[in-house]
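Format is sequence with structure; example below:
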Amino acid sequence: MTTDTIEREFRDKVSASVHLASEGVGRYRVFAPFMFEDGDHLTIGLRHEGERWALSDEGHTFMHLTYALDEKSLHQGTRQTIIGNALSTFGVEDRDGELVLPVEGDRWGDALFSYVQALLKITDVSYLSRERVRSTFLEDFRTFMAEKVPEERRTFDWHEPQHDPGGMYPVDCRINGMAKPLLVFALPNDDRTQVATISMLQFEKWGMAFQSMAVFEEQEGVNRKVLARFSDVAGRMFSSLKPNADRIAGYLQETMLL
């Protein structure tokens, strides 16, 4: 099949403005009018692989996303789900960060259409609403704690069983095995910060012995009065998760030895 025929099928199925440019033997650049949110175009190549052809982004999509996102976050929680669904739905392979879609037979137009749809779905991780970002923070927190604290020493979504069987005063993660357990709070907003404040005050009334730690999604975004009240009762605080990951891990290790 000639380049003109392939280009025509691409245009018929995807967009009239698609065109090919040769980059050597068995290799073409596919120019199409699809972009990331910052205006950069998707990178799409067409190359010969053995007996067939394949579309590839040459690793550009994930690389571009990491300009604004932590690379690890693409493989965790909500973002991982979005990316995984896009790949499986459209039959795209993730080859160590390079996204590849083999062309089946002469279905050039169908292949490019599916490939573009997959890449655009993956870029949706940049468009997560504030609510989705918050849920991602909580998932990221949970993943981080699961990695740093042995399963037998942690309990997620803990509440005091004797005084609070209904879970009115929740704790995101309780770490045991020390003289005083460590209560860890994940705080994405004002409301969660206020609930954590109330919970710790109630624990003090019950005479509980405990240590506390808080990890904010973004401490600068918390209302100053809310943060001030929380600071009066809180123990160790970290202003965010990812930039402080090493410090948090070090603090956890040190505390678990006490």
Q: What stands out?
A: The CA atoms of residues 63 and 97 lie 8 Å apart. Residues 130-256 form a domain with the Trna Endonuclease; Chain: A, domain 1 fold (CATH 3.40.1350).
